[in-house]
């Protein structure tokens, strides 16, 4: 039986290099690979291109990588919770490609599916369309968007097995499954790691074929960006 288990996050990121393209699963702070990000912070690398729905917050997630000046370019959809990101963007220290959220999801999905490009109406008539091919279909304009792929994809799952099969829980499913498929090397950290064959095949969200390394994470904070509580 194939066993893709590694010891910990430090081993998972050992071969991540400067100027690499990295994908990070998560939506806001939900489902982000906390252990992998911390291990990356311990490495002496820079010039990274990070593909993520958002840029974390100032003191957590990818925000910590921005503080350490590890990131050269962010490819994201929503970045409104990070003051350091804003400062680096306005000062010209950080390259940024902002993408409509649905387009970001589809570009990542296309990368995993081997589809080099597709047409979408999202962004037509806006700055998003600058420099991109426009084509008319059935009387409506669409713009050409290219796939997104990465040297390394980091995802976080609720449960996984030693063969790399993954189950995500609730909202933490978000961008994780599609990014798992779009990385040359996909590294999964899980809250619970079980022997291969113990997961119900009908409940698996990401098949192990997409995952090259898996380890059991620890000490998850699972922060919430903006906690909202209903008034009784």
TrEMBL record:
Record flagged with keyword Phosphoprotein: no
MF annotations from Gene Ontology: transferase activity
SUPFAM superfamilies for the chain: NagB/RpiA/CoA transferase-like
InterPro entries: 3-oxoacid_CoA-transf_A, CoA_trans_fam_I, NagB/RpiA_transferase-like
Keywords, sorted A to Z: Transferase
TM segment ranges: none
PANTHER family found in the cross-reference section: ACETATE COA-TRANSFERASE SUBUNIT ALPHA (PTHR13707:SF60), KETOACID-COENZYME A TRANSFERASE (PTHR13707)
Protein name as catalogued: Succinyl-CoA--3-ketoacid-CoA transferase
Organism: Belliella aquatica
Gene behind the chain: atoD
């Amino acid at each position: 039986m194939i066993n893709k288990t590694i010891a910990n996050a430090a081993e998972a990121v050992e071969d991540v290099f400067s100027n690499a393209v990295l994908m990070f699963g998560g939506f806001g702070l939900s489902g982000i690979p906390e252990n992998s990000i911390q291990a990356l912070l311990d490495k002496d690398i820079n010039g990274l291109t990070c593909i993520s729905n958002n840029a974390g917050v100032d003191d957590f997630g990818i925000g910590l990588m921005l503080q350490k000046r590890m990131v050269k370019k962010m490819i994201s959809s929503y970045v409104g919770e990070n003051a350091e990101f804003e400062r680096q963007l306005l000062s010209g220290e950080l390259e940024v490609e902002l993408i409509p959220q649905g387009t970001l999801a589809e570009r990542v999905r296309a990368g995993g599916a081997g589809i080099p490009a597709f047409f979408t109406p999202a962004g037509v008539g806006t700055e998003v369309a600058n420099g991109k091919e426009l084509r008319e279909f059935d009387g409506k304009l669409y713009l050409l968007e290219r796939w997104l792929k990465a040297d390394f994809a980091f995802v976080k799952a609720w449960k996984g097995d030693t063969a790399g099969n993954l189950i995500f829980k609730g909202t933490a499913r978000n961008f994780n499954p599609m990014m798992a498929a779009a990385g040359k090397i996909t590294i999964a950290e899980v809250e619970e790691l079980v022997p291969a064959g113990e997961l119900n095949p009908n409940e698996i969200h990401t098949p192990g074929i997409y995952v090259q390394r898996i380890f059991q994470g620890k000490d998850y904070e699972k922060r919430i960006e903006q906690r909202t509580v209903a008034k009784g």
